[in-house]
């Protein structure tokens, strides 16, 4: 553990709750919590020994970033065969390394939405126990998904393990209860097919209302949120009607869906990074044409749905889908830039990756903003992301990362501080 007090002075502070920029700010951290944050005119500086003083002049302090949609276990550059022949221990070690890369990019919290072999739970626990460094992980374990929607189907003589599927309400009930008992932080369910798989359609719903409601009821009864992978209209409407809390992707949203999301406090997690990188790389990507075409056609629709939802005031949480092809772990902040390119203001994009994401995850009482009483999760960046959002995507600009009051990463002149 570091010194018991850290005082950060001289820089800008982004108050994501009020939407204010405080020019000459003071932040005081004691142990793992923020005890004061605001203008230097209003806060008296403590004195005494055992205080780390950080001069943030010319810098901006903002809450530690939150990625609401990651897959720590997936390695973007890998093809399916490479993934299948890799041992589970190696997958776990890679996931641990991916978690570290994510923290190093300024993300102090992530929600991991589906991993095989419960690798996400292992990484979460290893971080919490201090064996490895990484963000706080909210883990889902395996997804609730039916046969054919998520995983490739192999001939019966090929044995694959760890890719669970549930094909009835009773199988979903058992799996959801098992996940709850294993200690997951939320449930992830698929209500539509995928853009990536040849035989899975994003426009098709993959469960009945009764089936999705089964998982929703068990999640909610146990105080957990439930996230729905939902692309097309059928999958989105199914997720909303069943009571899911966050819509991942949300490619097709009509007026009624947007109204429903506003009334019921349902969050949207658009995930633009995969298709934006694919658009740039196209034929050079090594991804089959059917995947490229599905992803690009989905992208145009998703931009329109995102813009309509944003204008209507739907809460939008940033989620990079890191681990997908061309979304490397540690480049999560590119999603923030993508949301700005899609029409969000810089401040709203930062809110989306902090306080709004914290709300989507149900942890806004302890993180997501720099306020007294909250966990001291924050980053100090060289430059001003309100003026230039791209400073967040260059890792060397993230000069200091403090997680739960601990300065876990220091770069530049802070290296020896
Ligand atoms: Zn995903």
UniProtKB/TrEMBL annotation:
GO terms for molecular function: hydrolase activity, acting on carbon-nitrogen (but not peptide) bonds. Residues 62-408 form the Amidohydrolase-related domain. This is Amidohydrolase family protein. It comes from the Bacteria. Coiled coil: none annotated. It comes from Halonatronomonas betaini. Gene3D superfamilies: Metal-dependent hydrolases, Urease, subunit C, domain 1.
């Amino acid at each position: 553990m570091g010194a018991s007090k850290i005082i950060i002075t001289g820089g800008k502070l982004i108050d994501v709750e009020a939407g204010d920029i405080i020019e000459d700010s003071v932040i005081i951290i004691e142990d793992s919590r923020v005890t004061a944050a605001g203008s230097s005119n209003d806060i008296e500086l403590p004195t005494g020994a055992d205080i780390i003083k950080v001069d943030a002049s010319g810098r901006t302090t903002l809450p530690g970033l939150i990625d609401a949609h990651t897959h720590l276990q997936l390695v973007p550059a890998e093809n399916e065969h490479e993934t299948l022949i890799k041992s589970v221990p190696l997958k776990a070690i890679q996931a641990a390394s991916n978690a570290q890369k994510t923290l190093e990019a300024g993300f102090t919290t992530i929600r991991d939405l589906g991993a095989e072999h419960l690798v996400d739970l292992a990484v979460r626990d290893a971080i919490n126990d201090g064996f490895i460094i990484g963000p706080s992980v909210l883990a889902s374990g395996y997804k609730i998904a039916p046969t054919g929607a998520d995983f490739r189907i192999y001939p019966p003589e090929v044995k694959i393990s760890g890719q669970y599927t549930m094909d009835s309400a009773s199988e979903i009930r058992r799996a959801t209860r098992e996940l709850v008992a294993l200690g997951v932080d939320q449930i992830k369910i698929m209500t539509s097919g995928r853009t990536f798989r040849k035989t899975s359609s994003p426009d098709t719903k993959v469960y009945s209302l009764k089936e999705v409601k089964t998982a929703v009821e068990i999640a909610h009864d146990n105080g957990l949120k439930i996230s729905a992978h939902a692309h097309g209209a059928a999958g989105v409407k199914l997720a909303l009607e069943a009571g899911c809390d966050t819509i991942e992707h949300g490619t097709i949203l009509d007026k009624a869906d947007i109204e429903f999301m506003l009334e019921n406090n349902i969050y949207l997690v658009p995930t633009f990074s995969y298709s934006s990188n694919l658009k740039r790389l196209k034929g050079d990507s090594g991804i089959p044409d059917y995947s490229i075409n599905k992803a690009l056609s989905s992208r145009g629709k998703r931009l329109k749905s995102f813009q309509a939802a944003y204008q209507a005031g739907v809460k939008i949480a940033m989620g990079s889908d890191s681990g997908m092809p061309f979304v490397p772990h540690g480049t999560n902040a590119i999603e923030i830039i993508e949301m700005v390119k899609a029409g969000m203001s810089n401040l709203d994009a930062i809110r989306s990756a902090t306080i709004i994401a914290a709300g989507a995850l149900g942890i806004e009482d302890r993180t997501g903003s720099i306020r007294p009483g909250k966990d001291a999760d924050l980053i100090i960046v060289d430059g001003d992301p309100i003026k230039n959002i791209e400073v967040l995507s260059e890792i060397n600009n993230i000069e200091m990362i403090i997680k739960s009051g601990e300065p876990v990463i220091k770069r530049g002149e802070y290296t020896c501080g």
